[in-house]
Amino acid sequence: MELMPLREAIAAHVRDGMxxxxxxxxxxxxxxxxxxxxxxGRRRLHLIRMTPDLVYDQLIxxxxxxxxxxxxxxxxxxxxxxxxxxxxxxxxxxxxxxxEYTHAQLALAYSAGASGMSCxxxxxxxxxxxxxxxxxxxxTVRCPYTDAPLTAVPxxxxxxxxxxxxxxxxxxxxxxxGIVGAAKEAALAAGRVLVTVEEQVTRLTADMxxxxxxxxxxxxxxxxxxxxxxxxxxxxYPRDNGFYLAWDEIARDRAAFTAxxxxxxxxxxxxxxxxxxxxxxx
Amino acid sequence: MTTPDYTRDExxxxxxxxxxxxxxxxxxxxxxxxxxxxxARMTHAPGLVLIYExxxxxxxxxxxxxxxxxxELAETATCLVPLPEIFAHYLQRGRVDVGFLGAAQIDxxxxxxxxxIGAYEHPAVRLPGGGGAPEIATYAREVLILMKQTVRSFxxxxxxxxxxxxxxxxxxxxxxxxxxxxxxAVITDYGVLRPGPHTEELELSxxxxxxxxxxxxxxxxxxxxxxAQPETLPAPTREELRTLRELEARxxxxxxxxxxxxx
Lengths: 282, 263
Description:
Chain A is α/β, with parallel strands linked by helices. Helices cover about 30% and strands about 25% of the residues of chain A. Chain A is built from 9 helices and 15 strands. In chain A, α1 crosses α2 (about 30-40) and α2 runs parallel beside α3. Chain B is of the alpha/beta class. Chain B is built from 8 helices and 14 strands. Chain B has a 10-stranded mixed sheet with strand order 4-3-2-1-5-10-11-12-13-14, with helices on both faces. In chain B, β8 and β9 (about 125) form a beta hairpin. The longest helix of chain B has 18 residues, at about 240-255. The chains are: A alpha/beta, B alpha/beta. Chains A and B meet through α4, α5, α6 and α7 of A and α3, α4, β9 and α5 of B.
């Protein structure tokens, strides 16, 4: 694990054309890292994420991605991700090829990837149309013991997984607390792991079974307070539901979206400047 | 007739809440179901175990979450489990009694579409997608569906089957080996639809006070079957309305509270 400024971590580890999973299920979404990817103008990324959320709406709308693997692409409790829809429906700002799974399938695909398996298995029941769509690579196989039909889901092994977490200790071990989604599986499936954290502490105060990524599985870490905003970091700040509601209007229109991103992401030096500009941090 | 002292949205949520039995284990879908599930827990079903797909098990939120993963759900949960576990160890293993879902479209056999309007490759409207719904619909012992009834959402043929109901009916679901029992009721803003015996086709079985079967038929995109004697559902009680309105007021206040971060 190497502790470095976020700008250097993204420059060193995220390249054009890579498959990149910025994980965090509603909680601990690495917005600051995504914004740095946008500032550095990465292109042709294959984005992977269970719930694309606002973070991928922004990356897609800013032209960073050419492919998306996902399992639920909405603004939770609000409605559509307008930039994701515009890319899929109208090819703006560029076409986006989709690989679409259910949550259970994509979680299984990360688990398989983290286990060194070529695929994960789940029982197969009534077929839905999701099994038929192009880009979906599910296969039906037979259980060697019971002959029951099983669905095989190919492993997902991102080139880079990016997470946000609460704490890093002086040795570089990283603690995640609260809703953890498939963060651990996505990290252990990846070729490299980048982490942003709320703070550095001498020693992690965690229960024995806490979710800790040991320093030696983490490639690079950056200290970015507020790095999950407008998502949240349990114990530090809550989800800004008002922002998620407001995003619906901002992202609905191409020009309004572009102007917002130019002002708040491209036009600021770093995440702290964005938080100050939004009036979230003093 | 006097004007009722509740809205159509309110009687829909209250009727949905009444479908849930105390101590049932319920997997809560995003959107309208969340209000109904928490209203049930705050009224007649205090022992209802609510699971959200974020891995929050036995959660008791004081305000409704906007997302399925708000901090409120984590803070008030019995335990938090990772995503692969909530789907494999709880849902797929058969530990969920009731799945509570919404969708963009439904057909007469209770199959659901939340993926696309139009063709998948060139959709007129790209919807969010399946998320947890396909497996909830497959594995929950029974499924409750909460949707507003219009000819655009209650359609003769789905553009895309995201989550299975009774497939083509008449035992097709069971023949496919689906472990869960499928839809038990569809609660709408007109009343309640239930699968008919044998055919498994949804039939209008109950209506809200003052709503006619003809009005419900006109809001359905297929020739809706109506039970011989549709039941008239009871109006919300004073206690149910008070609890729901207070919950919604607390929720509005919480969602507009400014966030402050110390750098």
